[in-house]
Specification:
Elements: H1 14-31, E1 35-41, H2 49-59, E2 65-70, E3 73-78, H3 83-100, E4 110-116, H4 125-132
Helix pairs in contact: 2-3
């Protein structure tokens, strides 16, 4: 169900998402290395999407991480890449999933990207999530 927090994985703690964003901001500001936050969203009730997230997680580099928000949403943080490279990586991973599991068509997934550059200061979840999931930010 939309809005339910995944509680059976180690990547569901909201503080972990903040830590991942903080790490991306630190890499950008202190080392001039961009990182990219990728939002992955599948259709509500999709049975394949959790399998895709598992596949992506298993293929990540040590410096990368995934955060599962709900059954149909996950946030991927790719360190030391720009947006173009992140799009290539995600495309390769999704193609690999299709090849391994004999999918003739690509999975129905919405992808959103947020590149963390040295110009980003005090990056917040409220700034990143609306961008990667394509929704308007909530006004306070």
């Amino acid at each position: 169900m939309m809005g339910e927090m995944v509680i059976d994985g180690r990547n569901h703690d909201p503080l972990r998402l903040r830590d991942l964003l903080s790490r991306a901001e630190t890499l950008a500001s202190q080392h001039a290395l961009s990182s990219v936050v990728v939002g992955l969203a599948g259709p509500e009730g999709d049975l394949i999407f959790p399998e895709i997230v598992d596949y992506v997680e298993s293929a990540l580099r040590v410096d990368d991480a995934i955060f599962r928000m709900t059954r149909e949403r996950a946030v991927l943080v790719l360190a030391d890449v720009d947006r173009q490279r992140a799009e290539e990586i995600v495309g390769r991973l999704l193609s690999g999933f299709c090849e391994q599991y004999a999918q003739t068509a690509g999975p129905e997934i919405h992808l959103g990207y947020f590149e963390v550059t040295p110009q980003h200061k005090h990056l917040t979840v409220k700034e990143v999530l609306p961008t990667v999931f394509g929704v308007a930010p909530i006004e306070n």
